[in-house]
Amino acid sequence: MRTYMRASFRQARRAGTLAAALGAAFAVAACDLGVFDPGTIEYDDLFDPVAIDPLVIGAERNLGRAISNGRPGGAFGVGAMLTDEMVHSGQFVGIRDHSDAVVVPDDVPETSTRWAHAQNARVTAEEAIEIISVVVSDMGGDPSASAPVVTATLWAGFANRVLGDTFCSATLDGGPELPVSAFYERAEQQFTDVITMGGAAGTPDLVTAARAGRAQVRMMLGDWTGAVSDAQEVPMDFVHEVRMSDNSTVEYNGLYESYLQDNQHSVWGTPFGQYGTDLSGVQTTDGDPRVTFSSRGPTGDVFIGGDGRRENWFPEKYQSRNDNLPMARGAEMRLIQAEAALVGGDIPGAMSHINVLRDHHGLPHVDAASTEQAWYVLQRERGIELWVEGRRLPDMRRWAVTPGYANFDVVRREASAQPPEEDEVRNVLDNPMGELCLPMNREERNSNPNL
Q: Taking the mean position of all CA atoms in its chain, how far away is CA 447?
C-alpha cells in the first residue's frame, strides 16, 4: 500500500490537533465525538477507533459536494456548461460565462469554489487513509486488509480523477505547478492500491469500482491497453455511486437542485435536446430513453428561463436531492473498449462494443461506413449514455487531440436585441477557453510559495 502522508499530517500528530477538512468530515458524518468545535478535532478524538466511520463518510460527503454542490452543480455541472450538455438560461453572470465559453478569471466563485471543494475532497480522503491506518495498526491490525482503508483509498482515487477531469493544471500539497496528468497518475496508483488490498479486506465490489476508475484514468493518460484490460473486468450492470441525501445542504444532489429547482439551466440549444425523449410529448426528437427532459408544463405552457429569453427545458436525469451520483459504470467500460478499438483503427470492433451496450438497453444496432462516421457514433453514444455524469468535459479534451474533431454544435453567446433563435451557435470544440478546463484558483496561487 502506498502512503500519502504529508508534512501537515505529521505536524498535526505532534501538535495534537488536525483542523479544516477533517473537522468538516466529522461534522458531516453527524457522529458525536465529544468535541465542541467541529472545525478543530483534538488528537485523541482523531485517533480513536470510533472516528473511523466518520472519516470514511466524510471523504465520501466531500467528494459529493465537489462534484455536485453549488451553482452550477459542482464539477459535474460546470462540465455540462463548458461542453454541449446544458445551456445557461438564467441571469447568473458566472454560469453564463461558462455556457458562453468565455475565459473565466481564477478568483470568481465559479472557479474558486470548485477548486477548493475538489482539493478538499482529495485531502480529506488521503488524510483519512493515514489516520485510519495508524488506528488499525495501533489496534494490532493490518491496514492493507482494512475495509475502511480500502474505502478511503477508493474515494481518494475518484477525487483525484475529478481534479484531473476538471482543471487545467495540478498542484499537490503546496508543491509546484504540474501538468494535470499528475492527478490522473495519483488516482491510478490509488486505484491500484485498492485492487491490491481488496482481496484481503473482503471488498470485491470496491475492487471492481477501482478497476473501473483505473480504466477511466488510464484512458485519459493514453494507456489504452491498460484501460481495456481493466474495463473488460467490469460487468455491464455495475455501478459505483456517491450517496447523496436531503439530510443537509452538503449532501444534496446539487444537479437536481440546479436543474429542477432552478430556471438557470436548459437542454434547449444542445444536441441532447434532439437526441432524447421530451416527456412533454411536443417535440420531434430521436427519442433515446437515456436522455429525458420536459420542454413544457402540464398545461402545455412554455417554460422561460431566468434570463426572460431562452426556453427552459428541464432535464429529468435526477429526480430528487437523494439521487446518487455515479462515479463509474459498466456501461462506460463498453464505451472505453469501443474507443480503444477505434483509436486502433478497428471500426467493426468499435461498433460491436457499442452494440453490446445498445442491446443492454434494448436499442437497435448502429453501424459506420467510415472512420469519421464511426467517431461520430462513438462520441454521440458516449454523450447520451453518460449525460450530465461529469464525463463530457474530459471526453472533449481527449477528442480535441484524437481524432481532432467532435461534430456537435451548441448555443453559446446571446444575440443582442435578437430572439434566442438567433443566439450564436458554435462547434463544441470552438471554445475561447482553449483547453476546456478551469484554472486553479487565485487563493492557491497566492498561498503556495511554489507557484
A: 26
Residue 94 C-alpha cell reads as 458566472
Q: Has residue 88 been placed in a domain?
A: yes
Kindly report the CATH number assigned to the domain that includes residue 262. 1.25.40.390
Residue 310 three-state SS? coil
- Output the pTM of the full model: 0.92
Q: For residue 299, is pLDDT > 90?
A: no
Say if residue 11's pLDDT is above 50: no
Q: How many helices (H) and strands (E) are present in the chain, helices listed first?
A: 18, 13
Closest CA relative to residue 12, chosen from 119, 130, 109 = 130
C-alpha cell at 362: 434494448
| Residue at 268 is within a domain | yes
Domain of residue 286: give its range.
1-443
Q: Which residues contact 387 (CB under 8 A, 6 or more apart)?
A: 85, 272, 276, 290, 291, 315, 317
Cα dihedral sign, 381-272-216-233: negative
What's the full length of the chain, in residues? 451
Q: Which residue has the cell 458562453?
A: 100
- Dihedral sign (CA 392, 393, 399, 400): positive
Segment (H or E) for 275: helix 272-275
* Contact indicator for 353, 374 with CB cutoff of 8 Å: no
Residue 284 has a CB neighbour count (10 Å cut-off) of 7
- pLDDT at 363 > cutoff 90: yes
Q: Judge contact between 274 and 289, C-beta under 8 A.
A: no
Pick the more confident residue, 151 or 436: 151
Amino acid (1-letter code) at residue 371? T
- Count: domains in the chain: 1
- Written as nine digits, the cell of 140 is 494490532
